[in-house]
Amino acid sequence: MPESKGRDQAAYVPPPQKRAQKVKTGNAAWFTPVMLGLMIVGLLWVVTFYITRQQYPVPSLGQWNLGIGFALILAGFAMTTRWK
Fold first, then answer.
1. How many CB atoms within 10 Å of residue 65?
2. Is the dihedral of CA 76, 77, 78, 83 positive or negative?
3. Is the distance from CB of 83 to CB of 28 less than 8 angstroms?
4. pLDDT over threshold 90, residue 66
5. How far apart (Å, rounded) are the C-alpha atoms in residues 10 and 48?
6. pTM for the complete prediction?
7. Three-class DSSP category at 3
8. What confidence tens digit (pLDDT) does each residue in 18-46 have?
9. What's the CA gap between 55 and 53, in Å, rounded?
10. How many other CB atoms sit within 10 Å of the CB of residue 73?
11. Taking phi first (over 0 means left), then psi (-120 to 50 degrees means alpha), and beta for anything else, what does residue 83 get?
12. Residues 6+ apart with CB under 8 A from 27
């Protein structure tokens, strides 16, 4: 029985894969302080409103001071959904 001839070409070797660059995960350096700052300022705003018997932080706003305080707190909590 005849023998098969050897190959003249080398076997196919795929090119090496490019290493994927590491993707930076996490947030910017300013993100966490702003998030915590909003929650703390909102809390202080509401506490100040109650402790001063609704005279401060802005007397002309009246009950809207509560809305401002809670809006600041909610903005901080909304930022926690993007925190990594």
1. 22
2. positive
3. no
4. yes
5. 80
6. 0.70
7. coil
8. 887 777 788 999 999 999 999 999 999 99
9. 6
10. 18
11. beta
12. 82, 83, 84
